[in-house]
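I am writing to request your help with a piece of structural work I have in hand. I set the record out below, with my sincere thanks for your time.
___
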Amino acid sequence: MSHQSELIATDINAYLAEHERKDLLRFLTCGSVDDGKSTLIGRLLHDSKMIYEDTLATLEADSTITGHAGEAIDLALLMDGLKSEREQGITIDVAYRYFSTARRKFIIADTPGHEQYTRNMVTGASTCQLAIILIDARHGVMAQTKRHSFIASLLGIRNVVVAVNKMDLVDWNQGRFDETCESYREFSKSLDLGDPYFLPMSLLLGDNVVDTGENLGWFDGPPLMEHLETVDVELGVDLENFRMPVQMVVRPDLDFRGFAGTIASGTVRAGDMVVSMPSGVQSTVERIVTFDGDLEVAGPGRAVTLTLADEIDASRGDLLVSPAAEPLRAHDVEAMVVWMGEEPAEPGRQYLLQSTNGASNATISAIRHRVEINTLEQEDASQLNLNDIALCAVTSDRELLFDPYADNRTTGSFILVDRLSNATLGAGMIVAGSSAWDQAPESSLIHQVSGIEPTERSIRFGQQPCTVLISGLTAAGKSTLATALERELFDRGKVSIRLDGQNVRMGISRDLGFSAQDRSENLRRVSEVARLVNNQGLIAIAALVAPDSDVRSRAKVLVGGDRYVEVFVDTPISVCRERDSNGMYEAADRGEIAGFPGVSAEYARPTDMDLQLDTSRQDVDECVGRIIAVLQARGFLRG
């Protein structure tokens, strides 16, 4: 079973070539405390003759002092390498071991069982393809078994072995094994763990680890080692959508310029077209360069340097992708976050977000729900404590390039880092873009093209289409100006449509509240309608509070900056309060209205508006006249 080969003595180069061709399986062991995780790895290495003689002698000596296996060798000590771990008899860090057999190479991550070290388990599992979940046959499914199973599912591990250990302590009882398996199946029904392989074993005696043993005749499945050697390591690997984060630009001389990185998914060949994101510039792959020479094709996990036909501008943090399947782009994402910091995470705090496309400033803008691991129920939470797992809305000041984590574990993940100490505080798995701003329409939708040209509409209506966004505090005079502007345009023979915030909320936005997220969605819907109206040659007038500058910028992009006019009604808040006949400011002062702009929430004043008005000093006719002047100067009105 071991990697020992006669070629080592007779032809070392042939041996190394043979060894290099073997595929690699990364797996981890997890489960509750004292279920036998470290012992399992020690047994695998011992029974497959992968422990050196001097190491074995040390284990024998240590077993007489700190061992917990009686007179036998305590194989758990092989992984419990820290002195404090040996004294306590537990694993408190992630330990790694490497070994190989005639069929395959392996990297093992031995992860902690204690709940307080769940963050270490996340670290160990993040790169693994298979999880071995140990269960003590005497105790059955424990809280940590559930926690680690949920994390394995969350981290995209689809190959799972449920190893029911210590069968010797329940007299090799098949009924106890079946009961444990059924309990685990019932718990894991809602988890995405594929089809787990259930395996009875005794690590103390070695049954069903490398060899079948003599005590489990009623079980006819292969032992653990055989399963590890034959399991499909390509399960879930994306070979279609090419993704390669650029890690370095290689420029050894004036004649060579390449982009180095590790392929996250898909395959690439010389001659393929690739797109550099976020710039969107395309080029053709000329060479796939490696230390051992050029390749014709390279796939996931391969570290390569790509040379392109064109001198495009790309650097560390950019992403090379296939043109047919570009990644998603968003400032706001929904992500499952595992909190690893000692200090709680609260919405609004600033962190550094590190992902495949570099670092950016980020905040957890909202905690959607926390997951109760024991029941998998969703609970409300105002903060995240150590080891909490929650669905969060995360906002980044830099546009993120990503795929959902379920599709790509590399481009779909990120970490949150403390800005001062540089400590990793949280690990995130992106579920989707956080708002509809970032969701592209289905490619299968049919795009209907009008038979009327824009110039024909312009001649008919005597105008160029545009959207006028009139924003400002509640009671600043936005609706009054929008109504008067609509009348003035009508009297001039122009065609417009007014999208007043109050009227919109009686129709297309009647399902929305007044949270920051709902206000953002309200402006998005109005902008979508305005764009459709503009496409029909009409002028759209939108009167909304729209307190977020970033959201207003997105509206400008959606409508189109060349036909967007932003008017800021900068009426003093004292005047707005006097005009407020509905008593909304007073209600906000009493705390009855949460997130009210100007009182309990910030109103981000525009800095690049087209026109600034103050209805406390300028009457309606003057304000409308100034808006008309802007529309004429921009070429939207004729005559």
Notes: Confidence is low (pLDDT under 50) at residues 82-92.
